[in-house]
Design goal:
The structure is a homodimer of 422-residue chains. With 422 residues, chain A is α/β, with parallel strands linked by helices. Helix content of chain A is 42%, strand content 21%. The N and C termini of chain A lie far apart (58 Å).
């Protein structure tokens, strides 16, 4: 099999399908989504059988338990996929939305119309549910999709793809609207990310290594999500209970997620007052603390692992029950620290002070900036996007949780009556 | 001089200046813009003197007349630059604008705030006025700028840069908000486009060669403008006089511009009725016609150069008094032809038919799609953007004329009252 030729073929088919899809009515796209949801449920036995092949192979090749868990399908997860598709069907169609349509001095009426990007390449790792999710988001936003899942999930992904193809065709759409790459050859990814003629944007979903590798080599634009080194700053005018609740939730609600807090900054004035009761809660969750000298001194009796933070700690995404803590003079030092070490994902301030809340919102350059809320809320569903294909830590095109709108662009539309330029 | 080190230094200074600028009030940015405008006028003798050095050197090195004309400053052009700055000062500040601020089911109030991109690198060719324009657009949109003009304009650009620096400082802003690269060494460009740590986006302004070279080598995102192969399709239900006026204006109003029509498509039903009177007008402007066999037959008595079009003609941006003409069966063939050959810049339909106007608007995937208007209107000023830094033929981030908003991004802002995730 000639990989280059195979990928060009997929690309050409995707371009063609994208043109059909861009002019497809909302109802037809929704019919396809609901049909695919039904087919996934109906195909449960087959999906479990195919998934089992992947799991057996994974065990043989020595995948660890966490990876096997991500790879595994069960009835509940299949229902979850179907439910996700139904939710996307229920979302408003972003395509065709016209905004800012106004008359200009020339007499022309000029506005913007939201349009699909065209063809989207999605590269992801072991979770097979991404196949359904990503296909559905692309379909609803009018984009053709080329999907490349992890090689360890190839049987599961092909089985899900079969449901998608059947659903598309039964709704009268070309099956090439969603194409799942059938080879596990790594060269396919290399081709996919370097064919701007056929692919408009790449969305990689997975670990930092995958994303860096892809964006380092892509000639197609990449919507990327690098790390999430999220900060919470507790101001000396914070409400004590809110501060403790938020700092506890942001660290311990889930550890392995990009919107978990990794560094806690506390104003010197109320550091002891906040840190002592907060640490008592962390201790129950066996959170390891990595402290600046001042917080180390305050927390010297901590009932858990506590060490002095190194410079590297401020720059680390733990994704684990580990927290670095720094006492700062006040909001300005907090903003300085965040500007230096944040990955630009999500930062929060806890304060009752009006001016400081405004200063934090204005000066922190991250994709989400919060006042008196846990960083764990940085999420497409919580933000009302309905679904998310990822969280962008880029500044260009789209920033933060990426929903349907992030998979579209806007073109100018101009209505005249025979207007010519003078 | 170590170019790499010099560029990193510029980059670090730009980052620092960008942070200051991002929190600068609108009035202070406007003060700087108006001061720079005044300084340009006051410095007219010096600007003309420095410009003369460039012109002399250009003549010696054999620059052609068109290039020398673009390079030349005179009192009127300097006044034009100053006027441009005053217009940008008068525009609304895009930074800090909050949209879609809504309560979500969690009780959090979530919206988007418009923020600067950070540091913008502008690479341009001979026109020295771009130095003032680009600096002003970046300044107003809260972005630090690193400017790299053509080496043939180095004295003019440095003289303009001196006014900018003085204006910034007199308004209390760091002079590093706008930095003009002082060396003509080509390696400086290579560094600028490969330092994503210090530069957030590159805007190249110039010929296709420059832009392809830059986007082929850049690791920083590029807002690019490739060619403009713009089409006008005259439907058989077009108003004859509107059709002739638009097709004449779109081709002959200016030849060397990206929004000029390069290919005219005419419905077979009214081809002779439109083409004969239209060609009589083109003949007066000595427009060369490159025709499909059918239009060749209709226009065989054309009083000017007329040849059969080759396949390559449909794919060529003439930027000259040359027009390719094709007779098509109707709107569907027109859309097919445009989908195949358009550069995605601007296309127009002339028709009085409601459904066809809607079909054209929906199905044409170009940055501007027009009904009954000349393609020459595709322009930031005409679109009410107030000013433009270029026209993007990309789909990602920004499409079509790029004004202040295209130089910004949006971050999510979240207001809570102690909210934690359940």
């Amino acid at each position: 099999m000639d990989i280059k030729q195979y990928m060009v073929e997929l690309g050409m088919q995707a371009r063609k399908a994208a043109r059909v899809l861009s002019r497809t009515e909302t109802s037809q796209k929704n019919t396809a989504l609901l049909k695919i949801a039904d087919l996934l449920i109906e195909s449960t036995p087959k999906l479990l059988r195919e998934n089992n092949k992947d799991l057996e192979a994974g065990k043989k090749s020595g995948l660890d338990d966490a990876l096997l868990d991500r790879l595994a399908l069960n009835e509940e997860r299949i229902q979850g996929m179907a439910e996700g598709l139904r939710q996307i069907a229920a979302l408003a169609d972003p395509v065709g939305e016209v905004s800012d349509l106004k008359y200009q001095p020339s007499g022309l009426q000029i506005g913007k119309m939201r349009v699909p990007l065209g063809v989207i390449g999605i590269i992801y790792e072991s979770r097979p549910n991404v196949t359904a999710d990503a296909a559905a988001l692309c379909l609803k936003s009018g984009n053709a999709a080329i999907l490349r899942g992890g090689s360890e999930a190839i049987h599961s992904n092909q089985a899900i793809a079969a449901c998608i193809v059947q659903g598309l065709e039964s709704a009268g759409l070309p099956k090439e609207v969603v194409q799942v790459i059938e080879t596990t050859d790594r060269d396919a990814v290399g081709e996919l990310i370097t064919m701007p003629k056929y692919v408009d944007v790449i969305v990689p979903r997975g670990g930092k290594g995958l994303i860096e590798r892809i964006s380092g080599n892509a000639s197609v634009p990449v919507i990327k999500h690098l790390n999430g080194i999220c900060h919470v700053y507790i101001d000396d005018q914070a409400d004590k209970q809110k501060a403790i609740n938020i700092a506890f939730n942001a660290k311990t609600h889930r550890y392995g997620v990009c919107n978990a807090m990794e560094t806690l900054l506390v104003s010197a004035k109320n550091a002891a007052d906040i840190l002592l009761p907060l640490a008592a809660q962390y201790a129950q969750k066996q959170v390891e603390l990595r402290c600046c000298p001042t917080s180390m001194e305050i927390l010297k009796d901590y009932a858990g692992i506590i060490v002095l933070a190194t410079e590297e700690d401020w720059d680390t995404e733990y994704l684990a029950p580990i927290l670095s803590i720094k006492v700062v003079a006040g909001i300005n030092e907090a903003i300085e620290h965040i500007s230096k070490f944040s990955s630009g994902h999500t930062e929060a301030i806890v304060t009752e002070n009006y001016s400081r809340s405004r200063q934090f919102i204005a000066e922190i350059d991250s994709s989400s900036v919060m006042v008196n809320a846990s960083t764990r809320f940085a999420d497409g569903f919580e933000y009302g996007l309905g679904a998310e294909i990822g969280i962008s830590t880029d500044k260009i095109h789209v920033r933060g949780p990426v929903g349907l709108e992030g998979l579209t662009s806007q073109k100018f539309i101009v209505f005249g009556d025979g207007h010519i330029r003078q």
